[in-house]
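Workshop exercise sheet. Pairs work together: one partner reads the sequence aloud, the other fills in the structure field after running the prediction. Swap roles for the next sheet.
Pair: D.N. / O.F.
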Amino acid sequence: MCAAALCLAGAAWLMAGHERGLRRARLLFADAGAVALPPWWSWARLLPLIRLRREWLCLPAALTVALVAASPLPLALGAVAVPLVRRWLRAREHRRDSDRRARGVIDLCGATAGELRAGMQPAQALLFAAAATDVLGREEAAVLAAARFGGDVPGALRTAARQPGAEGLAGMAACWRVAVDSGAGLAAGLDRLEAALRAESDQREDLAAQLAGAWSTIALLALLPAAGLAMGWALGADPLSVLFHTPAGIACLVIGGLLETAGLCWAGRIVRAGEKA
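Structure field:
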C-alpha cells in the first residue's frame, strides 16, 4: 500500500508539472484569439508516464524479493529507490553530454581553423564549422545569428560557454576578440586553443582510466552483502526470512543499509575529489 501510494503521488506530480508546462507554452505561443487548453486527462498524456524506463526496473526486482521473502518491505524499498536511481541515471547522462560537448568544442575549433585556411571569412567559417559539429546546443541560434548578421560573436560564444562541457568556447571567444581588435591570426589562435583543449581532454581520459579500478572496487564492495545473502541461501539457510521477519534481522537490515550507504558515499566522495583535483 505504501509503494502504491508513492507511485500514485509521483504520477500526480508528473502530470501536474506537465500540465503547467503545456499551459504556459500555449499561453506564450497562442495567437491573438482564444486559447484552447487541453483537458486535464488524456491517453496521450498518460502513456508517457507509464512508459518503461530503466529506473522503474527497481519495482519488478523489489517485487520478486518481496514475494520470495513474503514481506512488503522490499517493495517499499524498491519504490524509494526509483527516484534515487533516476537521479543517478540523469547525473550520468549529464556527464556524458558534458564530455560529448567538450569533444565537440575541440572539433569546432579545428573545423573553424580549417575553413579559415581554405579562404573563408571568420563568420562564414564559424557557420560552416558549427553546422558540421552541432555543439552549440540551445545557444546555437544566437551564435549563428551573430555570425550571419554581424552581431557580437564573442559575446554569443561566451554565453554558449556557460553550458556544461562547453567552457572551451570562452577561449574561442577570446581568440575572436583578439583577432578583431588587433588583427592577429584567428586560425593560429584556434589551433593553439584546440591543442590545449585536446591535451586537457586527454588528461581527463587518462585520469578516468586510472580511477576506473577504484570505481570497480567500490561496486564490488557494494555487491558483497548480496553475495553473502546468496551464499547463505545456497548453504540451505533462509537469510531473507531472518532479515524481514525478526526484530534482530530488521535491525541488522537497517544498520547495514545505513553503513552501506555511508560507505558508498564516502568512497565516491574520495574518488570524485581525485577527479576534481
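Discussion prompt: Residues 186-234 form the longest helix (49 residues). What would you look at next?
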